[in-house]
Structures are given as C-alpha cells and as structure tokens.
UniProtKB/TrEMBL annotation:
Protein's UniProt name: Pentapeptide repeat protein
InterPro entries (UniProt xref): 5peptide_repeat, DinB-like, DinB/YfiT-like
Taxonomy of the source species: Bacteria, Bacillati, Actinomycetota, Actinomycetes, Propionibacteriales
Organism: Kribbella caucasensis
Domain of life (superkingdom): Bacteria
Domain DinB-like: 97-212
C-alpha cells in the first residue's frame, strides 16, 4: 500500500479515474478539494474544523454542515453550549460535559479488562484519548491562559507533528501508564478547568492570549 506523508507535496494534484477505495486520510488538509462524478459509498468524514468560521461541505450543491450540526446537537444535549461566551454559559456547558464524561467512565468501567487499551480502526484507545485530553488541557489552559512555564504532564498523549509544533518531546513518557494513573491525572485536569471557570470573569475571557 502506498503511503504519502507530510513531506509529499500533493497540493493541486489531479486524480482522474483513480481507484482510491479504502484509502485513509489522517490529519490531512483537504481544504478546497473538489470531487466530480465520484463514487462515495461508505465514505466517512470526521472533521471538527467543519464547524468553524465560514467552512462549508457541499454535497450535490447542498451545504450539509448545518444539518450535521443540528443532528449532533440533538444527539448530544448541551453540545450547542460550547459556543457560550460568558462565564455563566461556560460553567453550565462544562457542568454538562462533566456529567456526560462521568457516564462514559462508568460505562467503560463495566467493560471487560483491557478494553481501555484496545485500538479500533487505527484510532487511539480510550486510555490514549484521555491522555490526549490531558495534553489539550495543558496546552490551552495551563500554557496559553495560565502561562505556566512548564505546563505539561509526562503522560500527555501527543500526535503526529507535535515536535514540529514546538513541543519538547523529552517531557513526555515513552512508557505506557496504568489506566488508574491516567484516570487520576485526567480527573485533576478536569478539576483545573472547573476551578478556573468558577471564578473567571468576562474581562479574563476577552483577554488576548498567545496561540500555543
């Protein structure tokens, strides 16, 4: 199977009558891609940035993003609150998120031993996902907002390109932490966000931060 990495320049490439069945695009920039007369049966797209700014995703001339957004909000009550811009709204949104995660953790705890370390379809395992959320909290809250000089916990899960984005990889452990440790660190980070939101003011929310 051919593999194309970030070093391969495929910008502006044209694929005509190409067979891309089963191809997998991970962390790739497909902005502005145009597909005409294509067979897209069974295609899956997971792109959080679809809901940012003036993004659109047109299928047969119809922008489907508003429909996807509405359906996700229906499936996950409280999801729409992520757009809150005032302290009370953010506190309510975070409270909803914590309740949802509590239910998720309970469900996972009832699963067979080792389930948390299983990777499905090449994605991170559940434990790795929690570790990445630790990293996300460290990047955005501890580094960008609180401006802590060394904000990172060693078990944070990095992704491809982290070193290129300025992260010192020597900070992070190469060993696999126990699930109990992951839960403990993740709970601590959740509490940090909760404590920050408990006292945050509108002025603090409006303050300019350095992009981490």
């Amino acid at each position: 199977m051919a593999t194309f990495s970030r070093s391969d320049d495929l910008q502006g490439a044209e694929f005509v009558d190409a067979d891309l069945r089963g191809a997998r695009f991970v962390g790739s920039d497909l902005s502005g891609v145009v597909m005409r007369g294509v067979d897209v049966q069974g295609v899956e797209i997971d792109g959080p940035s679809l809901f940012e700014g003036d993004s659109f995703l047109r299928v047969n001339g119809v922008d489907v993003i508003p429909f996807v957004e509405a359906e996700l909000n229906r499936r996950f009550p409280g999801r729409a609150d992520r757009h809150a811009r005032d302290p009370d709204g953010l506190r309510a949104a975070w409270s909803t998120l914590e309740r949802t995660w509590a239910g998720t953790l309970e469900r996972v705890a009832a699963m067979p031993a080792g389930t948390v370390d299983v990777s499905v379809g090449g994605e991170w395992s559940f434990a790795q996902t929690l570790r990445h959320l630790v990293l996300a909290t460290d990047v955005w809250l501890r580094r960008a907002i609180l401006e802590i000089e060394q904000p990172f916990h060693p078990i944070g899960q990095t992704d491809a390109g982290a070193e290129d984005n300025g992260l010192d990889m020597s900070i992070f452990t190469t060993a696999t932490p126990s699930y109990a440790e992951v839960l403990e660190v993740r709970a601590g980070r959740v509490a940090m966000v909760r404590d920050f939101l408990a006292t945050v003011t509108s002025d603090e929310l409006a303050a300019t931060r350095t992009d981490p």
